[in-house]
Specification:
The complex is a heterodimer. Chain A has 36 helices and 45 strands. Chain A is an alpha/beta fold. By secondary structure, chain B is mainly alpha-helical. The longest helix of chain B has 28 residues. Classes of the chains: A alpha/beta, B mainly alpha. Chains A and B meet through strand 2 and helix 34 of A and helix 20, strand 3, helix 22 and helix 25 of B.
Chain lengths: 1021, 508
């Protein structure tokens, strides 16, 4: 391969003579068929009362009985509407534009609704801002059908009706009013102009009211810093497409940093054009999604990240650096690159420290960075740490009369809240589930899901999104806003309230129906007045950079530092009861159903902590007790993470939810008690404890027969620009008549005639794929992929049709080898396959490759899998008898076997086991039964629907109409799907690109999925 | 000796199974007679392109044997191209008249089959018989039946929107109205009732007031003859309302089939032969051969029986409402897609919601068609009432009941494709332009609907293999059809050649 790199998925693979790895390479299914489980051993069989003859009799009888019973078909009822709504045609999906705003994720989305049931979330591509969806937004539709949802309001734990509830609250409030005690609204970031106005309205009826915004994952430091410099309590909007040099110090901006959504701009700069692409340098301690995508990643402990930032600032201003760090060499290079790029550079930081944020903004000011648009700041986070801390103190002192929580779960996320709540006279929780806060509040108001609600959102100045119901409320719920309107004695509904507000303040003559149809409205920025929490007020007159800098330089480190982080799956933890997200493999660790302490190899060895792979390929690990500032969490599993900064450990927030979730969803540990003073970075001490933790980690599963070093391709920008294609993207060659010939010229089979009609191809650009996993969830939702649970994942029976392989490769490069003088010797090779402490990472989404010469098709004894004219490798489940030969013969290991019946089965108590959860199923895709093989169909139900639409309208299909669930969900545009026989189509265009390659090309399978290799910009300056 | 015993045991067993099989065969082979068989053949082979009463892809076929000789028809049906090639003028003329669309040849149909089909096409449809009988009755009573028939037509076109014969609708019931009012009064009222009222006619004003002051539409265009015809109809409508039972009775007679005695005779001979072979004959070779023949027979029949499992052809469940497609789609000629409106848009054809029923049944609250002993008027009226119970309609006040809790109608699904088979109505109805009857059979003749087609995969594939794509005026097919027809060297590409036989097109 181009860079002669060695790729590996797990450190296990680097051990010599690992029998497990060998076994995994040879066997598609690691475990032998557990015959002893159903047959028992010989002794048991002998002693059994059932003889072979008896057994055959039983079999005969049951077969006969079953056939007799089968003679009578079941009576199936078909119940039409009594009065059919005009806009519903059974069998035809309607799409509604709406907006998700759950306090953590904000996005303009399209909701696919079938027969009145929302079944899928898709990005609203009309919206220029925040029209993309991440994994959580994609999965949010399943939370609508959560059978743990609150179905009625409650007073002191008893279900009541709404009028009783209102009366109860009114009498309590009046009591408080008489004593003029304070009422506090504690909400997550609403970013909703009307909701905030409503709370203001409430203040007019009752004076002593306070509205405090609280974000569980706080961006308060960044908000305060921006306020100090720009007099607005908001977040700057970065457009990474305008940056040639991107430097991030601990900011995971491709995931959830400052509300996310930056990957769209970032990806634009990652495709080399005219020999140029952006250079991305990351300084961080945990291996994040962003770090994994960086061109150069420096491992830096959290406390040293402050120094790195200060040193970059000093370097740019010409001052000498205060303290040196391990990454000084990197800092020097970065300063050079930043100076060279000037205004086309940007520096961001994820340090939750006001000084750090101020310095980062100052650096961008010095650079005059074009990336930041100060005219349109973002309101995606608004929580204030100081206000929340003050509230907690007030609560503890008994100074708070009533606390009303909405869109937040402080009893879970905020240490000390549960205790302090006991001193509050009236507590009302607006909640969807009986979560930690609802279960300790006196009164619980059941609220609807966002797909059942009206609402509006403004996450950026001048940008407004509308939220509209896509289904009638499933339960006796009432929106927070409607309740507030009731409480202030208004007879208006929230819908009317929004409409009035929008007509007067937002639309300014534009059509309401059009806004509702589009789901959003963009206003000219100058005309916008914001009423968001805490935005108004005056700033400090002069920013003292010197003091900020010295504060930054004096940040104290400790021997072992903890960096708390969030995963792309669970985020802040509010969707912990969502099995799709729980089963989503983390892009970096490839582990599901868990959080764990990330630790570097060095530290693990020092503490005697181990990870090891057991004989079936599953991962086990030691456990530790960890202590932060007196708070101890016991029995946390340890995961040795390549690329973890020595002296630092990482732990994901959002796990360990225990209230309002199914028992099988209570996984991991709650790390929020460690999130002290709203700082993700803490000094920590750990000690090994007894016990072994069993991970459900998929990194060693579905390995492709030891062909890893052939599977993915990457090159450097320098090679890409200066060398011919043959050097960095060589065609595979095979031997024919003892001569090497290009694989395209050799064929075992006759050529598949693919020249006529539509031929589907899917292109995946590895340069812009960030590994965010939104496609995995989209595939889940579209194709009724079952959830199998932690144990099944552990034994390699995951069902994901689409997996995102993550490969590590050594940082030993040709250049580095030359520098160290080992290039060309055996030492260079050894260094390449050494388990690296700071490996480079490559992501590669792999689904069925839809080979024209599919190895699976030729081995199926019943022809259950066959090839279509349109290039799709088709799988007829009803024909499959489950021999699994196809999975054995698949070089890509993308076929999944249904070991069990995953619906209506208490062993798999997930959404397909209850009526409510099954409402999310796509009626156009069959739910597969036990004993059949399944796999990616290239969303044939979607392509067929597109073709049918064109046929009905009597026109050819236009380019861009064909989509798969994954390509539709991809926010960076890394996945392009279409008709490759249409020479005008985008996919036909990218297929001709020099970066195009096929997976395992030398096997000669002629796949209809192809990839564009990743390019790393290794130019230092 | 023991061995012999055992063998005779086996023989007995075989014999008994043979008898069983023979009886089974008798049951299978007991088929119905001429016209009945003709109807089946017609629906299976001809109905896709021909209708009885109207021109469709091909000409209407009712009474076709009066036009052409039987020999000509047989020749045409078996191989019309050959007939044309032979220079037959009629054949060429038809070919030209129907846009040079070649009719599919049916060499597989036997002469007997074709005779059966002709027997069916020559049959007199039911409604004509009713009318004929009515006319005969009228003549005996001295009524001008022609006038009554004309009157019915005019009444249906002009009056039926607001009037019924026997019940109050928007206006009063009109049966025997001539007994109440004079013909002249009626004529002037119908032509211009407002004028009549202004002239101070007391009756006219009273009626106006009784019906909430809503004026009746004036019909100045109706001639006196027309008006007389209407009045004649209101007075003598009963002559056209002959009980259906009268006509049904004669049909039933025809349906009783003569038992095929010949078949029984043959079977009896065979059974006797088998007994002779096993118990009397000493020819071991003959025994062996008979055994083999018997085993093959058993295998064949049991295979056929197994293949029938899960095939619910003829499934005719009792529905919660005795809705008759014969009355709606047959007698009243309501278009299928009026009620099954999503067939052209969606994968499902859609069972009409009760509000669609109400489009007509707001004004049709009682049944006035032919009745039988089993299903009398009260029965039908009760069935209509079930719609009102579902949706909450007060037929006295002619208004929906406020705050009524709707009760959905729980129909029994007849056509049940398994979940793993994807079928889309709009593909077949809108794109391919198929008639509903192609798969669902002559629904307009079914009082209770049954599953007409087997809905097996073989049945689907067979049609996909033999049906040409409908590519005319559909831009989608423009390029691909040209390319594919070149590839396969055919003029018209079949559905299967376009990929309609691939597993993944229906199974996902």
């Amino acid at each position: 391969m181009a860079s002669n790199k060695k790729y590996w998925k797990s450190v296990e693979e680097l051990k010599e003579n690992s029998s497990i790895v060998e076994k995994l390479r040879q066997n598609e299914f690691v475990e032998d068929i557990p015959t002893d489980q159903f047959l028992g051993d010989k002794e048991t069989l002998d002693s059994s009362a059932t003889s072979r003859r008896d057994f055959l009799k039983y079999v005969g009888f049951t077969t006969a009985a079953a056939s007799l019973a089968a003679c009578e078909g079941p009576v199936i009822k078909s119940i039409p509407y009594v009065v059919k709504p005009d806009d519903v045609t059974p069998g035809v999906a309607d799409y509604y534009a709406t907006t998700i705003a759950d306090g953590y994720d904000f996005a303009n989305v399209l909701v696919k609704v079938r027969e009145g049931r929302p079944i899928k979330i898709e990005p609203n591509k009309l919206a220029k801002i925040n029209g993309s969806t991440n994994a959580r937004v994609q999965a949010s539709v399943l939370s609508l059908y959560d059978n743990n949802r609150l179905q009625n309001p409650r007073v002191n734990g008893d279900p009541v009706n709404w009028s009783t509830f209102d009366k109860e609250i009114a009498s309590k409030i009046n009591e408080l009013k008489a004593n003029s005690e304070s009422i506090v609204f504690l909400t997550g970031t609403t970013a909703s102009p009307t909701t905030n106005k409503l709370i203001q309205d409430y203040k007019s009826t009752y004076a002593n009211v306070q509205h405090i915004a609280y974000d569980a994952i706080s961006e308060s430091a960044a908000l305060d810093a921006y306020y100090a410099m720009h007099e607005k309590r908001a977040l700057p909007d970065y457009d990474f497409s305008k940056a040639d040099v991107i430097v991030s110090i601990g900011a995971d901006f491709l995931a959830d940093w400052q509300g996310g959504g930056f990957e769209v701009g970032y990806a634009k700069g990652r495709v080399p054009s005219h020999g140029k692409m952006s250079r991305h340098v990351q300084f961080e301690s945990n291996m994040t999604l962003t770090g994994a995508n960086a061109d150069k990643r420096y491992i830096v402990k959290p406390s040293e990240q402050s120094l790195v930032l200060a040193n970059i600032y000093n370097g740019l201003t010409g001052a000498s650096s205060t303290k040196s760090t391990a990454a000084d060499g990197g800092v020097k290079n970065v300063i050079k690159a930043l100076k060279a790029a000037g205004s086309r550079a940007v520096v961001v930081t994820g340090l939750q420290d006001k000084n750090a944020q101020i310095i980062a903004l100052a650096i961008n000011d010095i650079l005059k960075s074009e990336t930041i648009n100060h005219d349109a700041p973002k309101y995606i986070r608004s929580g204030s740490d100081t206000q929340v801390a003050q509230l907690l103190a007030n609560m503890k002192a008994g100074k708070v009369g009533a606390i009303i929580t909405y869109n937040t779960n402080p009893a879970y996320t905020l240490a000390g809240f549960a205790e302090a709540l006991k001193k509050v006279k009236l507590s009302v929780a607006f909640a969807m589930n009986e979560d930690e806060t609802a279960s300790i509040s006196q009164n619980v108001a059941a609220i609807p899901h966002y797909l059942e609600s009206w609402g509006d959102v403004s996450i950026q100045k001048g940008q407004y999104g509308l939220m509209q119901p896509t289904i009638n409320p499933l339960f006796n719920t009432r929106q927070f806003q409607d309740t507030l309107l009731k409480w202030i004695g208004s007879s208006q509904s929230y819908y009317d309230y929004i409409k009035t507000y929008w007509n007067t303040s937002v639309l300014k003559g534009k059509s309401w129906n059009q806004a509702l149809h589009d789901g959003f409205v963009s206003s000219s920025i100058s005309s916008v007045e914001s009423s968001l929490v805490g935005e108004n007020g005056s700033s400090e007159n002069k920013i003292n950079y010197a003091s900020a800098l010295s504060a930054l330089a004096s940040v104290k480190g400790s021997e072992l530092e903890l960096a708390l982080y969030t995963k792309v799956g669970l985020g802040d933890g509010q969707m912990a009861n969502n099995p799709w997200l729980q089963e989503l493999p983390d892009p970096i660790t490839r582990t599901t159903w868990d959080n764990y302490l990330l630790i570097s190899r060095v530290d693990a060895e020092a503490k005697g902590l181990k990870n090891w792979t057991v004989s079936d390929g599953a991962l086990n690990g030691d456990k530790v007790n960890l202590t932060v500032n007196g708070v101890t969490i016991a029995n946390v599993p340890v995961y040795i993470q390549p690329g973890q900064a020595p002296g630092s450990v990482g732990l994901a927030l959002g796990y360990g939810r225990a209230k309002g979730v199914n028992t099988n969803m209570i996984v991991g540990v709650n790390a929020y008690p460690l999130f002290q003073n709203f700082n993700a970075h803490q000094a920590i001490s750990i000690e090994k404890t007894e016990g072994v933790h069993e991970f459900a980690c998929v990194q060693l599963q579905h390995t492709i027969m030891g062909r890893e070093d052939e599977i993915t391709k990457e090159t450097t920008l320098a090679d890409f620009v200066s060398k011919p294609k043959e050097e960095w993207n060589a065609k595979a060659h095979v031997s024919q008549d003892h001569q090497l010939v290009e694989i395209d010229k050799v064929d075992l089979w006759e050529k598949f005639d693919d020249s006529l009609g539509t031929k589907f191809n899917l292109s995946i650009d590895l340069a812009t794929c960030t590994g965010c996993a939104a496609c995995v969830i989209a595939c889940h939702a579209e194709n009724n992929v079952p959830v199998v649970g932690k144990h099944e994942i552990r034994v390699s029976r995951d069902m994901h049709w689409l997996r995102i392989d993550r490969y590590y490769s050594s940082d030993m490069t040709v250049e580095k080898g030359k520098e160290e003088g080992i290039y060309g010797s055996g030492g260079f090779f050894d260094a390449q396959i050494q388990p690296s402490d700071n490996p480079e990472v490559a992501f590669q989404p792999v689904m069925c490759q839809h080979c024209d010469h599919a190895p699976c098709e030729t081995v199926c004894p019943v022809a259950a899998t066959s090839h279509g004219m349109q290039g799709q490798n088709q799988m007829a489940y009803n024909r499959c008898i489950g021999t699994r030969y196809c999975a054995n013969n698949c070089p890509y290991k993308v076929r999944r076997f249904n070991w069990f019946k995953y619906f209506d089965n208490n062993e798999f108590d997930f959404n397909m086991n209850n009526d409510l959860g099954r409402m999310v199923l796509n009626p156009d895709v069959v739910v597969r039964s036990r004993g059949v093989m399944e796999k990616c169909s290239m969303c044939i139900q979607m392509t067929q629907a597109t073709i049918l639409k064109a046929k009905k309208e009597g026109r050819p299909v236009k380019d861009g109409e064909f989509e798969t669930a994954c390509s539709n969900a991809c926010s960076t545009g890394a996945m392009v799907f279409g008709d490759v026989n249409d020479s005008e189509s985008k996919v036909a265009h990218v297929k001709e690109d020099d970066r195009t390659f096929h997976l395992l090309e030398f096997v000669g399978t002629k796949p209809n999925v192809f990839y564009q290799l990743d390019v790393r910009n290794t130019n230092e300056a | 000796m023991k061995r012999v015993n055992q063998r005779s045991k086996i023989l007995k067993l075989l014999l008994s199974s043979l008898t069983f099989i023979l009886l089974f065969t008798i049951q299978i082979s007991a088929q119905s007679g001429n016209a009945e068989n003709g109807k089946k053949l017609y629906n299976a082979n001809c109905a896709a392109c021909h209708k009885l009463d109207a021109r469709f892809v091909g000409p209407p076929l009712k009474g076709i044997s009066e036009k052409r000789t039987k020999e000509w028809l047989v020749a045409w049906i078996k191989d019309n191209a050959a007939l044309r090639a032979s220079g037959d003028a009629d054949a060429i003329a038809i070919f030209e008249e129907y846009n040079k669309i070649t009719m599919t040849p049916y060499p597989n149909l036997s002469d007997q089959d074709i005779e059966d089909i002709l027997a069916y096409t020559d049959d007199k449809p039911v409604e004509k018989a009713v009318e004929d009988k009515g006319v005969a009755t009228a003549a005996s009573l001295g009524i001008d039946s022609l006038q009554v028939v004309t009157g019915k037509k005019i009444f249906s076109a002009n009056c039926a929107a607001c009037h019924k014969l026997d019940a109050k609708l928007i206006g009063p019931a009109l049966r025997n109205i001539a007994d109440k009012r004079s013909d002249d009064w009626l004529k002037s009222w119908i032509k211009d009732n407002a004028a009549l009222r202004t002239s101070g006619d007391a009756d006219a004003i009273a009626i106006f007031d009784e019906y909430n002051g809503s004026p009746m539409t004036a019909f100045p265009q109706l001639k006196d003859a027309d008006l007389e015809a209407i009045i004649a109809y209101t007075s003598h409508a009963d002559i056209l309302e002959v009980k259906k039972a009268d006509t049904a009775a004669s049909d039933n007679l025809a349906k009783v089939d003569p038992i095929p005695w010949a078949t029984y005779l043959v079977i009896l001979v065979l059974v006797l032969l088998a007994i002779w072979v096993y118990f009397i004959s000493k020819n071991e070779f003959l025994k062996l051969m008979t055994t083999i023949a018997l085993l093959l027979g058993v295998g064949y029949i049991s295979y056929a029986a197994m293949m029938d499992i899960g095939v619910d052809q003829g499934y005719k469940p009792i529905q919660p409402i005795a809705f008759s497609h014969e009355i709606h789609a047959g007698d009243n000629k309501i278009d299928c897609e009026y009620c099954h409106s999503s067939a052209k848009h969606s994968k499902t054809s859609g069972i009409p919601s009760a509000n669609v029923c109400m489009n007509c049944h707001k004004s049709i609250s009682e049944y006035n068609g032919p009745v039988t002993d089993e299903k009398d008027k009260a029965f039908y009226d009760g069935e209509i009432q079930k719609i009102y119970d579902a949706i909450g309609w007060d037929k006295e006040k002619l208004a929906y009941i406020e705050g009524y809790e709707e009760k959905p109608i729980e129909w029994i699904r007849i056509h049940n494709l398994p979940d793993f088979a994807y079928y889309n109505h709009s593909q077949h109805v809108t794109v391919a332009g198929l008639e509903c009857q192609t798969c669902h059979g002559p629904v307009e003749e079914m009082d209770e609907v049954e599953q007409f087609s087997p809905l097996t995969m073989g049945w689907c594939i067979e049609c996909h293999k033999t049906t040409d794509l409908k590519v005319e005026s559909n831009e989608y097919y423009a390029k691909i059809h040209e390319e594919l027809s070149k590839k396969y060297g055919v003029e018209k590409v079949t559905v299967a050649q376009m990929g309609g036989r691939e597993c993944g097109k229906c199974h996902y």
